[in-house]
Amino acid sequence: MSNSALLTDLYQLTMLQGYYEQNMEELAVFEFFVRKLPENRGYLVAAGLAQVLTYLEQLQFSSDEIAWLASTGQFKPAVLDRLATLKFTGDVHAMPEGTVFFPNEPLLRITAPLPEAQLIESRIINLLHFQTLIASKAARSVLIAPDKLLVDFGMRRAHGSEAALLAARASYLAGFTGSATVAAGMDFGIPIFGTMAHSFIQTYSRESQAFVHFAEANPDNAVLLIDTYDTEAGAQKVVDLKAALHAQGIKIKGVRLDSGDLADHARKVRIILDRGGLNKTTIFASGNIDEYKLEGLMAQQAPIDGFGIGTHMDTSADAPYLDCAYKLQEYAGIARRKRSEGKATWPGRKQVYRNYNDKGIMSGDTVTVDNAPCAGEPLLQMVMRGGKPIAGQPTLIEARERAKRQLNGLPVSLRQLSNAPEYPVIISAELQALAKIVDERITG
Length: 444
Prior knowledge:
This protein is an alpha/beta fold. It folds into 2 domains: 10-134 and 321-443, nicotinate phosphoribosyltransferase; 146-314, Aldolase class I (TIM Barrel, Alpha-Beta Barrel). Helices cover 40% and strands 19% of the residues. The longest helix is centred in the first third of the chain and has 24 residues, at 121-144. The two termini are 47 Å apart.
């Protein structure tokens, strides 16, 4: 994964040139938040903070990057000298990964000298936006099928290698069982799963021969793809091979369906397997599955034990982006506010407090001025001080557990796939008063 300092927009560097020339290097506060939820979304799940902290800790320009910037002719020697020694020295407050959040709630707050806080905008949005998008998409399937094996199958249609890896991470954080992407197992410790492709079957003259050879090659993972030609006939061939394989000490772990009416095929296959004494052999399904199709299969009580979910999740096909922003909220100790039409922000450093009912279900959030008294659980925590991560940051497993607790605390009405009501997020009186003061200052 690249963390080049040049992973930024040109205007970040042109603004730095202006800041340096005017000695504008006092502390600035920027916050990352989502303005509104995509259609058919009732909540979002925070993800990507671990990669943000790594990026900030490692931030620096290499000599080759400085030389290339010089070759563009757009930057003055004095500015290039400053960039050559630049490191991130600021503080970071953030919601822990796995936290459920809502519009207008800062997910992350950066406090750093203005040039540093400005430069990092593009990459921070890039990292937080994508993993939050995918974790939020994956969580919908987790809530629909909480007791099923869910596997990320989307690498081949992800938008590049980094996207494939981070999608595997984000979906696992949200509650998926694992991923088919092997590198995700090495990089993040995510359990990996896999079966076979139709091409393996097609290379053999007889389907049953392909089943035998695959099972012999993978005796501990004999999951056989049975729908290359005729699904039910394939299931019967698996039954017919049971004795020969068992004689070799090989148990048929599962069969996979990848096409057609999955519910109908699963019922017929289950009957064939059970009748043949393979009642412990699981049925795994894939093939353009998303949370909507998954909901239908669950409603039909299809006898399917696990699902491979790929393209729709790794691209968040029905909601491929978030309306998110990283905005200046304070500079040189003075609260700032953007007032653009349709894009106004709430000024100042903020905290988010969450309240729960007596059953542990989320009942409402309050966004207020940082350090203002407020009831509830504060969601933003300090995660980096002086450019160094705070010791004891949550592991991916711990973030996954947090996501599980947070999703279990969602109101039932927010778990539905469409027409979810708006969750109550209150803007405190203190924050509204601060906005009024900023407005009066702006208007003179």
